[in-house]
Amino acid sequence: MPRPIQALIHPDALKHNLERARASAIDARVFAVVKANAYGHGIERVYEALRGADGFALLDLAEAERVRALGWRGPILLLEGVFEPRDLELCSRLNLWHAVHCEQQIDWLAMHKTHQTHRVFLKLNSGMNRLGFTPQAFRAAWARLDALPQVDEISLMTHFSDADGSRGIAHAVETFESAARDLPGERSVANSAATLRHAQAAGVRADWVRAGILLYGSAPDFPEHDIAHWGLAPTMTLRSKLIGLQQLRGGDTVGYGSSFTAEREMAIGIVACGYADGYPRHCATGTPVLVDGVRTRTVGRVSMDMIAVDLEPVRAAGRDTGIGAEVTLWGEGPHGTRLPIDEVARAAGTIGYELMCALAPRVPVAIA
Ligand SMILES: *Cc1c(COP(=O)(O)O)cnc(C)c1O
Questions:
Q1: What phi and psi values does residue 19 have, to the nearest 5 degrees?
Q2: Which structural domain, as residue segments, surrounds residue 242?
Q3: Which end of the chain has less neighbouring CB within 10 Å, N or C?
């Protein structure tokens, strides 16, 4: 028998979350962002559930090919555009829409020989200072693209630095609005956080939203809001089983470095899950975990293949604490229980995005 660890992908939850994106952005079309192999879920595993989206957005050309290979004939947007001139051949062949964020990409387009005209998303740097034209250079870039026979449609996009936080997006929206004033073309500005938090704000009513993390059941602004607040459902469960039991006496320690010391007698369970599965090693004693649906905590250090969990609350609840008892690291537990990935991420000092993307290849994945 293989190790009992398993990841489950929940198509119904993906569908539900997509509907949630639509409800937040009623007038907009929705790009389902499936970069990073659909945030670690697997593009092929989420495709059926997300094909109700109006388009897919990603940034790896090989991933765009995979989406086309699944039979998708609708829009695919390359969020970072092309990385070298010959990538444009694939854009022509697969009819990919692509961001244009720098002069070099316009130079490449100008030299690109094609009969297939391209739709591009001209990207403004509205303050993030990663990719995009400055407000001063934006209109000249638009005019250059407009003059190219290779380009048949120019849309306008930007990406917010603070949609999930206290600074908000008003300053960036203003920058975008003034740079884009009077320019024709569809607009795309909102990521998940902007879609959920700022969809009502004037100026964010755009033609296309780019929904990523919300589709995958993680709150972009946790811990200010959790998925229950936003009405989202977990799309990935990581579960395993107890493979060992230890009865500790007061003073006994657990794991490498003896970082946890039992104050009194206690039962702990050993779970077949470690950092080589993608469970973060940064999770200290006290990280939430479910055993047979009962919320308890990890104790001691995460090792490569195992973690230890406190079984006392599980015993007190009269639930299964034997070898083989089900352990939920995140996602949906037994008996209708749930442990949001955001809570585990916080215990590791990171965000849900990183945990889902880091699910290790050795973990078998099934579709629920
Ligand atoms: C990743 C990404 C998104 C989606 O972001 P979420 O926070 O996951 O919704 C949107 N736009 C761009 C340009 C991105 O790179």
A1: -65, -35
A2: 236-367
A3: N
If you measure from the C-alpha of residue 210 to the centroid of ligand 1, how many angstroms do you get, rounded to a whole number? 6
- Ligand 1 site residues, Cβ closer than 6 angstroms: 33, 35, 79, 159, 191-193, 210-213, 220
Tokens of 339: 């442990």
Residues 180, 284: one domain? no
Distance 23 CA to ligand 1 centre (A): 18
* pTM greater than 0.90: yes
Distance CA 277, CA 327 (A): 14
Q: Cβ of 95: how many Cβ atoms within 10 Å?
A: 16
**Which CATH number do you get for residue 352?**
2.40.37.10
H or E segment and range at residue 123: strand 118-124
* Number of the ligand 1 atom closest to the C-alpha atom of 214: 9
pLDDT in tens, 282-332: 999 999 999 999 999 999 999 999 999 999 999 999 999 999 999 999 999
DSSP-derived secondary structure letter, 249:
P
Atom of ligand 1 nearest to the CA of 164: 7
Q: Write out the DSSP string of 100-115.
A: E-SHHHHHHHHH---S
- Compute, in angstroms, the gap from residue 33 CA to the centroid of ligand 1: 7
Q: Which is nearest to 72 in space by CA: 91, 98, 54? A: 54
